[in-house]
Write a structure and sequence with these properties.
- The chain is an alpha/beta fold.
- It has one domain (3-236): Alpha-Beta Barrel (TIM Barrel).
- Helices cover 44% and strands 15% of the residues.
- It has ten helices and eight strands.
- It has an eight-stranded parallel barrel, surrounded by six helices.
- β4 (86-89), α4 (94-112) and β5 form a beta-alpha-beta unit.
- α2 packs parallel to α3 (72-82) and α3 crosses α4.
- The radius of gyration is 17 Å and the shape is globular.
- The protein starts with a strand and ends in an 8-residue tail after the last helix.
């Protein structure tokens, strides 16, 4: 899948996202530390997923809480029962996190009456410094794994560093290193590599250039944070051969 559009689980936002022609929608449940908002987000996600079940349209995924959060079990119970096709796992750290989530999903699937293994996983696999050193650990761990995804903002905060377009192009920076390791880790695991979300305030020409660079390097798709980014992403990853 080429375009993965991040969207809040609210009716109006979801309706606009459905019309954006993204290959996948990723419902973002928000801050796992805010219990009241989390419950509202789960209810919204349940409604959105139920609204779209059985019809044509994008794949429906949900970004759940990290494994070390108390919110993870409630997230999985809500979205598996609602028919989500996959989950996006923040702060993933190698094969151990993949095994842990797979076990939780098996329980949630059984409780919801869904087939074992029906829920796929995308791991946000570069969000912590430790995660970079675990990118070779995903191969052969779980048949649920669909993709490894590159992200910079949590890593930037962890490092206290700045990340701009130059930081991604400069091979000496930790961000370029993380991106390369992510691509190699995905290839080793035999799954797709998905490029980072492009900032909503970024320059459209920069989005185009970043898409071309990702396609050239063998990424299969890219996150979008706005419906306006979807067309550019889809066009960039439609090419049969990498763009130079």
């Amino acid at each position: 899948m080429r375009s993965w559009l991040l969207v809040r689980p609210r009716y109006d936002d979801f309706e606009r996202a459905l019309a954006a022609k993204a290959d996948a929608l990723v419902l973002d449940l928000g801050d796992p530390l805010d219990a009241r908002a989390r419950e509202a987000a789960r209810a919204g996600a349940f409604s959105c997923l139920a609204r779209a079940q059985g019809g044509p349209g994008p794949a429906l995924w949900v970004k759940v809480a990290p494994l070390d959060s108390a919110a993870i079990d409630g997230d999985l119970a809500a979205i598996v029962a609602a028919g989500a096709q996959g989950v996006v796992l923040p702060r993933a750290c190698g094969g151990a996190s993949l095994q842990h989530l797979s076990a939780k999903l098996a329980v949630a699937e059984a409780e919801a009456g869904r087939d074992d293994g029906s829920i796929r996983i995308m791991a946000l696999a570069t969000q912590t410094p430790a995660a970079i050193f675990a990118l070779g650990d995903y191969a052969g761990v779980s048949r649920r794994l669909e993709a490894l995804a590159f992200d910079t903002e949590p890593l930037r905060l962890a490092l206290g560093a700045a990340c701009d377009e130059n930081a991604l192009r400069d091979a000496s920076t930790p961000f370029a290193f993380a991106r390369t390791c992510l691509r190699l880790g995905a290839a080793a695991a035999g799954v797709a590599a998905i490029d980072r979300p492009f900032p909503a305030t970024g320059v459209p020409a920069s989005l185009s250039a970043e898409c071309r660079a990702a396609r050239r390097d063998g990424f299969s798709g890219k996150f979008a944070v706005s419906s306006l980014q979807v067309q550019e992403i889809n066009a960039a990853f439609d090419w049969a051969e990498p763009q130079l």
